[in-house]
Model the fold of this input.
Amino acid sequence: MKKRHALLIILILAKTTALHAQEENRTVPRVEHSLSAHLGYSYLLDRVAGLSSFSEKYNNKLRSGFVWDLQFDVRVARFTGGVLFLSYASGGKTEHTSDNIMTNSLILQFGFYIVSPQKSRIAIKMIGGSGLTTYTNNSMVFGNKREIYENFLCGNVGLGGIYRLSSHIGLSADARLVLGERSNFDVYYHDDSFVVERKLLLHQFNISVGINYIF
Done:
């Protein structure tokens, strides 16, 4: 009986060692493409400009929202480059007013893997880039429509990580900071428009998780 138990243990150890060796010797292509989608939480680091209410509590509420993104990347060894589409939304209302904020950013980004996917199932990269952001606030003030719509340049820096479930599927997470601003912005209200001489800041911190398709 003891011999059978010992033999069983040896077989289990041999199988485990073989699987480990197979994992260590897995082949990861030098060049890969990746499509990914993420969903997460976003926080604006500055006051939101152009709201329909001056309440500090209301402003703080609208600084938090949800964010989602789509990414396409090409990896060559430890280097990566691609396109990011990022969208943020937040909304709120008071007794006589409401705001619906949305930012959409299209960013060309590049990165470098500090932990290479050719060495481990877990890969970590530094990312950065620049692009264009569209800021929109569709609001109502005492029953009248009020709108802010602006475009401006933005920058993007952060970290991204992926855990490969298989050769083609991975789970990923991103933490990134998006930075952009304008010196003023236009407000359209009650069939009229005027310029507000105040900075429109987008200093946005995002944390998101998602899934990757690698090919």
In short: Residues 2-24 form the longest helix (23 residues). The radius of gyration is 24 Å. Residues 16-25 have pLDDT under 50 and may be disordered. The helical segments are 2-24, 56-62.
